[in-house]
């Protein structure tokens, strides 16, 4: 009497391939997001830092040019909230949960009490004193 085990092996192999494929897609997407964020950071802030060092050495950089480069760096900070929702589904969901403009019509609005309890690490806990801690 032989027990057929051949059909279960291809199923396990296909599941592992599907898991590896899904994992590699996530890793690729995370790498792409990180590359875009770092690229934007370097494009925005590298000229500012190079000019800042140049200004310290030779004092030959006009103030208006320095101001333009400073604002270019500030623009990078405004780009991050735009880039994150474009590439990260979890970030988009979190923003939709807390910002009224991004919330779907069927989702309930979180209450201020639940938000403060979640963010403050407060809640029911045993009374602690310095004597108990030591």
From TrEMBL:
InterPro entries: GPCR_Rhodpsn, GPCR_Rhodpsn_7TM
Entry keyword annotation includes Transcription: no
Topology relative to the membrane: Multi-pass membrane protein
Domain G-protein coupled receptors family 1 profile positions: 1-84
MF annotations from Gene Ontology: G protein-coupled receptor activity
Region of interest called Disordered, as start-end residue ranges on this chain: 113-134
Cross-referenced Pfam families: 7tm_1
Record SUPFAM superfamilies: Family A G protein-coupled receptor-like
Transmembrane segments: 27-48, 68-87
Subcellular location: Cell membrane
Keywords: Cell membrane, G-protein coupled receptor, Membrane, Receptor, Transducer, Transmembrane, Transmembrane helix
GO CC terms, sorted: plasma membrane
UniProt xrefs under PANTHER family: ADRENERGIC RECEPTOR-RELATED G-PROTEIN COUPLED RECEPTOR
Name of the protein described by the UniProt record: 5HT6R protein
Gene it is expressed from: Htr6_0
